[in-house]
Amino acid sequence: MKKCTLFVAAMVLFAAASWAGGLRLAGVAQNQVPIKKQCSLSQRIAQSGEGVLALKKAAKPMADVGTVISDAPAGTVYENMYVNSEAYGLGWGDAYYQKVDGGIGGVDVANDGFIYVQAPISQAYIWGLGSPWLKCEKKEGDVIVMHLPQLYCIDAGDPYYAQRLVPSADGKTFVVDSTTQDVKFTWKDNKLTQVDDCLVGLCDATGGWFYMGDFNIKYTINPDKPIVKPEGLTKATCKMEYKSDAKDLTAEEFVMVNVFNADGKVYVDHMEKGLPDAVMCGTVSADGKSVEVPAKQYLGVDLEYNAHVYVLTGNAKIDGAGTEKPFFNYDKTASIKLTHDASGKMAAEYPASLVVNCGRENLYIISDYVAPRFVPQEDKAMTPADPVFTADDIRPSTNFDLVKFVLPVKDVDGNDLNVNELYYNVYYNDAPYVFTPEVFKGLTAPMTDIPYAFSDTEFDIYPSGGKHTIYFYDKNYTKLGVQSIYRGGGEERRSNVVWVNRPVTGIDDVNADMREVKSVSYYNVAGQQIAEPASGVCIKRIQYADGTVKAEKVIK
Fold it and tell me: How far apart are CA 95 and CA 212, in angstroms?
């Protein structure tokens, strides 16, 4: 989760290494793990009322920076195009190189005579910088020209621009091209192709590169459509069990999925958390003894990954065998076959695997299921175990309280729940709390019953690392409660409500430093306790002998 402004993130970036030739920087590692969209610390700081000057550069004057084009002008708009490019992104202390396959972009052939290109800087989505439209002028034939600089976004009061960048003289970074700021593309047969050999990069108001940018940009219309299962099919809940550890092939984990059968086809949903209703499909053999699952099945667009998501098939192989951390890699295949195993369950024989992937060509894996086995589960009424929620799970700050809790995925008897049917309520004093878009900007409608795996677009509400986290802005409460809700077997059953009183913080007590200190602890910006302050930003939590607590930000 993003917990710093762009400036702070850039400050901890390593110096780029020697030049690799072309537009590739040596020493910049290739990222092969999908990174979800983050929310900005600058937003969180503003919401908490804490000053931002210690965390970023002084804000630039806003009078003449222009306007971010957030909405496509009237015209013919091609949305959710399939993006291929080579890109740089900004990670935690490192820049990374990324081969983008299946990213999200758009083209607008506008009524005003211009063509607009959406989000040509692919990795900016990770930092919550939006998907702006950049204006291009039509030239002769199929050529269009993007005249830069153009305002791309404003983060924590600072403007950032798209600029044409080229390698620096020493080959260690990118700099603004002093010869031209025009970038040529062609727009032909509904395909956008970058012509010029340069980086469309993100820069601050001084022209300094902010470690994001793309080259070899191509946008095409995605011909693939999500599979639509027939209406009215009966749902069967299954555990999809799979091998989970390349070091120990006997180790298994599972996810809950729904399986539907109809006319020689088998449909499976909940393959990807962000697209729970999307389905993959397999074909039942003539003798009914096997199911063939083809590769490259399109699930749809997941904006958290800024990607077109597919189910691929492959044969697992173990890379790094004999090392401390071996891992599964895959040779892609055209399909895999599920057959009845010794226990009668439908299963793929090792090494056959299912891979949920960003894009249809390059392996950029969201989740992978080695030798999947589908075990039917009885859909029955179950009472969920009580949430785990204590006084230590509420950490107050000036304008919000950070609330964390655990929702067990077991019932009161220790049986596994289907998390797809698990929800929770937060109680505010004595009533269920209604989360509204007015307070929680990442919502589009009021919510009371929150699905187990739900995240809002601003990451005020999200699950991570076995805990659920809420940035709670309505602070006029004396107690909060959490209750699990399970809907199975045609019934709804609820756990007990687990209550926690709001801590007395002493945040506004000017005499706090005069009191006896009982303990001091530190937390990183992800909320994890650490032994001592690390470089960057962390939270210092002071507990006094009188029971009050003070939290303050530490910058090292």
Answer: 8
